[in-house]
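Figure 6 in text form: structure in, sequence out.
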């Protein structure tokens, strides 16, 4: 099933079936996105060192963007190319939503509330992270590696695919989902499987010359932050209503969300 149809199918299921409680997801995702966007204003002195460390790590990776790209280009093999094709799917939005939707459905069928709730929370995290990530992408307008403009080229609001490198959307998606499963289950093996899969998707973006290493780092941070925020904010929420509709026009496919506040 094409990725776009998969998105519509999964979101429709989440909205239509009371067992899944999908009517809450869009509203909660919008709240999570606002929480993420406003997070710098809530920084405390106790967390300032972690933030500074993250900025420092990002700056360091940025300084090595060109070298990392060169290493990746010199180590392409037929075997890695085959692996990369599968790794790419781990960060594809359509597949992520399809898997989360299937797991949520399985939780309903087998009366596994933890699986159902964790899967729905992963969808919420995915939507929130990508909402913020998309705004950053078009605001930054960073040129992708394959465009040949160098890592320092930024053209804000150009709305071209070749200028939407920062952050990596696949990485945002993969880590937004992985961090929810890792955080909700809290055991070593789930964490290793979830973050291992997300990391494979992130590395594939560098290997395929779609993103700079610093794009991937930023995507991992944003996705992880979204997952943790979704878990932290999931307590004490009331029942809300939201509706979603597929939207299509020439050159654009997407989803329109309307939520009651």
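Output sequence:
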């Amino acid at each position: 099933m094409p990725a776009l149809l998969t998105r519509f199918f999964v979101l429709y299921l989440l909205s239509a079936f009371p067992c899944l409680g999908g009517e809450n997801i869009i509203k909660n995702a919008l709240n999570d996105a606002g929480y993420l966007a406003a997070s710098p204003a809530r920084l405390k002195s106790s967390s300032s060192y972690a933030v500074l460390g993250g900025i420092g790590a990002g700056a360091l990776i940025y300084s090595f963007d060109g070298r990392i790209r060169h290493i990746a280009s010199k180590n392409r093999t037929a075997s890695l190319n085959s692996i990369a094709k599968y790794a790419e799917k781990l960060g594809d939005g359509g597949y992520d939503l399809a898997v989360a939707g299937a797991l949520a459905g399985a939780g309903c069928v087998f009366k596994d509330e933890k699986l159902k709730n964790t899967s729905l929370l992963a969808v919420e995290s995915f939507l929130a992270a990508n909402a913020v990530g998309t705004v950053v992408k078009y605001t930054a307008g960073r040129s992708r590696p394959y465009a040949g403009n160098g890592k320092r080229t930024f053209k804000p609001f150009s709305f071209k695919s070749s200028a939407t490198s920062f952050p990596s959307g696949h990485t945002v998606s993969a880590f937004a989902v992985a961090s929810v499963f890792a955080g909700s289950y809290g055991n070593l093996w789930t964490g290793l499987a979830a973050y291992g899969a997300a990391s494979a998707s992130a590395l594939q973006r560098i290997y395929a010359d779609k993103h700079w290493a610093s794009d991937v780092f930023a995507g991992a941070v944003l996705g992880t932050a979204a997952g943790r925020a979704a878990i932290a904010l999931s307590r004490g929420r009331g029942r809300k209503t939201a509706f979603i509709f597929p939207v299509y026009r020439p050159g654009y496919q997407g989803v329109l969300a309307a939520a009651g506040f």
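Caption detail: The radius of gyration is 18 Å.
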